Every structure is written in structure tokens, then in C-alpha cells.
Amino acid sequence: MNVRDLVHRPGEMREHRFAVGATEQFGEGLVAVRPGSELDLDLRLESVHEGILVTAEIDAVAEGECGRCLIDVALPLEVEFQELFAYHRDEAFEYGVQDDHVDLEPLIRDAVVLALPFQPVCRPDCPGLDPETGLRLADHPELVTPEQRDPRWVALAGFTASEDEGADASDADERD
């Protein structure tokens, strides 16, 4: 992005809002932002003494499959980042202004990839697949089996503690 009008002019600011198509796939695994998907960018470029401060908000849609039931999903992503592009690059600054330009593509790609869910689900309570038949449990609720309890805990199944009993026990511990 051209920042010629901002270079070495502290206090100057410019805002842009536009949409771009992803030139490559962002992410791997179950979900990713596919090539050609639209990324809505809301940018704020500010000139400061050290360089150009870029604040960005990105809206995109990641497509893939649910990690539990394997149906196709489209998940909205909202990503924000802020980065300083320094006039003079050194160890303190990772990015720099190059010939009156700032290269936002690596930052956008990294921010979007880091925002992708590791285990995407179609809905938070997705029951997944039946281990025996492979059918989606959401479509076949009759296949859902009641939760089996560990037989070692059966003796404690009927135990309930009241708040008063817990308070008495902690008071006794404090007196000892």
C-alpha cells in the first residue's frame, strides 16, 4: 500500500475500507479461507515519528468441515491487528517502510491463519458421528446412547453436599 503522503509527517492519518480477494489459501486443516474468498479490510494508517502505524480490522469467511460430524461449514472470522512499519529497520521492528510502501499481505495472512479455529464445529453442541454406523447423531437422535458412568464412582452417585456442611468442615480445618 502506498504511504507516500504519510511518510515523515507525524500526526497525519488516512483511513481506507475496501474488499480484496484472497490470492492463495489461508490456512490448512479442517477450515481455511479459500483462494478468491473476499476479505473486507478496514485500515487506519497513521504517521508517527518512528514510521507508519497500521491498524486493521479484517472480516472473512473460512470454509471447511465440522471436526465432529464432518459436514460443510462456513465460519465468519473477525480479525484485528496493529503493527508499526519503521522507517529504519533494526531488531526492534519486524516490518519496515520500503520505497514509500508498506506490505500488508504477510500480516493479513498471518492474522487470518492464527484466527482460524483448531477444531471447528458446525454448532457448539454438535454430537458428532455414531461410532458404530458413522451416521450424524444430529440427524439420528435415536442413536444417541445415554452416558455410561464409570462403575468405580457408583457409590458416590447419590452424594450431595450442602453449603453448610462445607463451611463447617472448612471452619474445623482453620481451628486445627
Provide a descriptive summary of the structure in words.
By secondary structure, the chain is of the alpha+beta class. The protein folds into 2 domains: 13-115, no CATH class; 141-175, no CATH class. Helices cover 14% and strands 30% of the residues. It has 2 helices and 6 strands. The protein has helices spanning 105-115, 163-175; strands at residues 13-21, 31-32, 38-47, 51-65, 72-86, 95-96. Strands 1, 2, 3, 4, 5 and 6 form a 6-stranded mixed β-sheet that branches. The longest helix has 13 residues, at 163-175. The radius of gyration is 26 Å and the shape is elongated. The mean pLDDT is 85.
Number of helices, where a helix is a run of at least 4 consecutive DSSP H or I residues: 2
Order of helices and strands: EEEEEEHH
Share of residues in helices: 10-25%
Structural class: alpha+beta
